[in-house]
Write a structure and sequence with these properties.
4-stranded mixed β-sheet; 4 strands; flat; receptor; Integrase_H2C2; P2RX7_C; Gypsy retrotransposon integrase-like protein 1
Amino acid sequence: MEKKWEEIYALISAGSYPSGYDKAQRQNLRRYASKFNQKDGELFVGTRRVVKTMDDARNIFREFHSSPIGGHTGIHKTLNAVCSRFYWFGMTVDIKTWILECDQCQKDGKPLTAVQPLQCIQSFPEESLVGSATDYKPVPGPPRPRSRMRGAPRDRVRRSRAGRATASTTCGSREQEGGGRVRGRRRVRGQARTRGGLLADLTRDDLERVQQLRQQLVAVEESPSWCICLQCRNMATPLEQKCCQQQPQNCTSLLPHMDLYILNEGALRLARRIWNDLKAEVDIHDPGESHRQFRYAAYRNFIVWQYGLLGP
């Protein structure tokens, strides 16, 4: 890491390139060094000082993270504090790794409650719950109502018997249908129990594979030479190569309005249609031209959001 900073410092201060560099390597070094500036013999990225060695980076992290007052504040607060004043290659990954190695940070948090052991249910003698046979006295129930069919004609009695028979067959079919549903549910539950171990193993393997991919993809992407906030990407034309000139934690692209108002597909379609109506132009369905119109619509929305009106 220190050798890379020496090459950038030599290029900025004396305009000299390392020996053995070809034209492409010189161009890449010149493009990357354009985002740095020199002040009092030190390199800066905007207002952040460049840390040249890993030992200096570790000491700076200890000053912010292990200070007697306000130390051990977690990953996000430590990152914001260090990134606002210093810069080195892979600083986000280094700070997260060092915090995970801190024993005090791993102990902070809510105390874990141990699971209480299960206690046996106390059994009671049968006499205390039911009582003896001599203490039992039957409780008289309500009187049984008289049948309304007493003295009714025979045809009415026959119709009532036929209705009861139909009701009994209907109830039997419903009970059979309900029993089939219950058996189906039990069968599905049994299959879930037998396949539960396989599903758990599959999910665990997938999570481990995703974690490995994330660890492999964690890398600091180099931003363009004209970018200060370290969030921009290369654009097609020089007119589009503009940066918000903010610190990384204050970048305009990280604000929620950026997604809701500027990058929303519906808002871009409406803005493009209004602009084409004002210019008396027809929407072009060519993919490249459509993509360009969407970009320009996003630029216009951004300018109106930031300045309140469009320029001449």
